[in-house]
Amino acid sequence: MKLKTAFISAAALAVTAAVAVAQNNNIIEEVAWIIGDEPIYKSEIEQAYQDMQNDRIPVEGDPYCVIPEQIAIERLFLHQADMDTVEVTESMVSSQVDAQMNFLVTNLGSREKVEQYFRKPFAEIREYYSTNMRNRFRINQVKQSLTKSLKVTPSQVRRYFDALPADSIPFVPLQVEVQIVSLYPAIPREEIDDVKARLRDYAERVNSGQSDFSTLAILYSEAPEAVRGGEIGFMGRGQLVPEYAAVAFNLNDPKKVSKIVETEYGFHIIQLIEKRGDRINTRHILLRPKVADKDLADAISRLDSVRTDIVDNKRITFEEAARYISQDKDTKNSNGVMVNSETGTTRFEMSQLPQEVAAVVGRLEEGQVSAPFVMRDPRKERESVAIVKLTRRIDAHQANLGDDFQQIKSMYEESAKQKMIEDWLANKIRDTYIRIEDGWRGCDFKQEGWIKSR
After folding, report:
1. Is the pLDDT at 24 greater than 70, yes or no?
2. What residue ranges in 319-372 does DSSP mark as E strands?
């Protein structure tokens, strides 16, 4: 794509070439828009509409107005990415596409069913997502470059908040700040030995040809992937827990099963499916040793004693208990303070807390420490025992600068960045040769300036 001075002749050549190619194939390809020297074909718009229907993405408005405008905007950003020599790491693209393809296989049941759903070969579907993901990364980098100079001061945030209409000030639901101390009850050696013996038996049955690994995974594995024979899909080394990756990436024979691998999730045996560059596809069987009732009771008793010492101001504070006793690696080094992974702050809406924690916190007053309770670690699928302290309760309210400065600041930053991007886009549209063909012009476009006087 070039700038306005050289557009008309180049655009005419592009259309002529497109028509010539189409005529050679006995097909007349309809050009809907021209952006710079790049045509947007009706077939592109139809395909994009079909893809959005396949992905269940709603189209707000007339698709034959909305979609070509979206394509045109993407072309302008990608043109800027070309000018700025924006590149993306292919491994990053691959990891995201792998995750998308794994999601499709998981939800539709198999590669064959994915192909049936999209009516395309699997490789073609993957290439489609790769192109889209690569373009998305490049466009995001352009947007980040356009807004990186934004500096926000408290006075700007205050002026922004003061100018907000009353009905635009967000309502903040009840929020809490919580500290936690967690213990994982000891698992009996007999239980661990039993789990390992079962996994060794499965491995021997596969290695001797008596059983199929995927069948055993469906029957016995406790991993979410059990329903598809234990297959986890293509993953990079960094996407796997280190212990699993160290063994999986050293496998070479798809007919053999790995040694037993212990991770934070339990004990695994692994079978190689395929290696592809720096990514690997494996299947695994996961077994988790179970906590005995006696060990669970012992952990509850221990935390009950710790709570008594904290409440009676004896020997230890809650913060010290978190640092020296807690086994929760995410909070023990921060005095037990829980951090909301969705917002990056210490505030939680009740629905954002683990279910068991929310049930306990809802009955506490500020500063109170709960009795010990049993909760299930959602990552490890393992029981733990915890006590929590309600550090602060912020009742539901309309946002204000005193309590919600960070939230209002984020709103202002988003608004300011969007304004910078909109201004850039308006200038880009103004300086770019654009032609919308008859039959495609009668739209209420979101951006102004697309239709230029001839």
Report:
1. no
2. 348-349
